[in-house]
Amino acid sequence: MIEVVDPDAPDRVVEYAPPETRLTTLTKEFFMPRFLERDEAEREPPCELYPWDGVRNVRPFSRFQATVVEGVY
Q1: By three-state DSSP, how is residue 67 classified?
Q2: Can you give the C-alpha Rg of the chain in angstroms?
Q3: pLDDT, tens digit (0-9, with 9 covering 90-100), for 35-71
């Protein structure tokens, strides 16, 4: 599950606007709830075909843009 949150108040999910992302990971071996990602994105409203929130325009967190190294991991 991915949520878009306010970077200054990470417990608050934002309206459909562009702050930081918060991720919850659940696999067979691992559970990490509400982990703040190093990226930011825009929250996208649900549509008929996909009735859940989405994200778009994922990019490095702008406050760290000068120091973030992008890559595949």
Answers
A1: coil
A2: 13
A3: 777 777 788 888 899 998 888 888 777 766 666 566 6
18: number of Cβ within 10 Å: 15
As a whole number of angstroms, the distance between CA 36 and CA 24 comes to: 9
DSSP state string for 30-55: -EEEEEEEEEEEEEE---SSS-S-EE
* Residue 27, C-beta contacts closer than 8 angstroms, at least 6 positions apart: none
Q: Which residues of 42-63 are buried (b: 16+ CB within 10 A; e: fewer)?
A: bbeeeeeeeeeeebeeeeebee
